Amino acid sequence: MDLWTRPRIAQALATCDMAAVLEGVRAARGWSQGDLARAIDYSQSWVSRVVNGQQSLTIDQVRDLAERLDIPLHLLRFGGAPARAAPAARGVNTTRRRDFARVVATGALLTAAPATTPGGTPDADHRPVDVTTAHALRAITGGQRRMDAGSCSSHLLPSAVAHVHLCEHMLKQAHGTAFSSELSAAASEASGFTAWLYADQGDMGSARAHYRTAVNRARQAGVRLLDVYMLGSLAAFEADTAEDPHLGLGLVQEAQHVLGPSAHPTARAWLACVGALAHAGTGDRSAAVHALDQAEREAARSSNTAPPWPWVFAFDQAKVAGYRALVDVRLRRPHQARRAFAEALAPRAVNPKQSAVLQVELASAHADAGDVDEAFRLAHEALSTGIRFRSERVIGRVRSFRRRYAGPPARCVADLDDRLLSLVSGIPASG
Hints:
By secondary structure, the protein is mostly helical. 68% of the residues lie in helices and 0% in strands.
């Protein structure tokens, strides 16, 4: 039997259900999702989102997939030739076909017709969005994220804020079109990244506002994993940076409800770790340890390979160890924290600002264990990074570390005090 006339695939073609078509082709040819992604020259994470119903397709993408998989276009009711259903597809409900036809017609008009002014005349400087807009906006956010590893947040922030405004403008132009969902997702990512930059600059109010916008736009996009990612990011911000673990825990619980029990292991492991951090902040050791154990089980699953968008890297055991170390610091278990840090800080390419935050946490573990010289050495290194990148997040962590230290006076303590004082007074530290 020809692949396209098999009952399930024929029905999927007749209703333009591309998620079912892709899954049917993959199963029929014995491919993994990675094999399918390579065959159609798309990323595996994109294929996963389509197959799981988390990614809508543009008309051009439907046409492109059909060409790459040699799908006869007339079977998709898409291509101008008289449609002739395969025998197994007769009797299929036509509602979805009519909906798809309306999408095709709308998309064609949007990409072909110029916008008009209120008077009805074409406006050459005001074009509607098209199938490339969301991808272009997300590429800009991706580039800004990559630059964050080696740049000052204060340098990136103006362009990030301007990019949020651009995304919101394009989203407004996409209202009522087939592109609205993708533009909402792009706007969510831009706002989430801008929130991260504001938090690094110590502007908690602006960070919180942008995180909330990111959550709202993710929900408008209807993308469950993006919704969870932004809720979890806001939860981590509240529990850790803003030091409100109870609020963070409530946001984690909401995100877990949205996520559901059968999500990708990376998403489940990450969210469990954020929850563990919030539990530790409330002093609930048992709940924190339980959440970390759950995260380790999820990270160890064989299916935890290619991460789902918007995650970039799979959440592995080293990342779980990093959260375990943070939790142990908050629970005042310095020896366990140092062991976990040793596993988490294995040689790897890391963002220096994030690495400095971890150094301060490790410094706290050493101080609690009585190793004052090593604790303050780490704090000095972290402070140097914070000054170099003008990161209020890092500098603030060092200040908090110094306030919490109640041990004996020492030369290393006095040196850190001098450096912190010089940041406020502008007078260079002595020695």
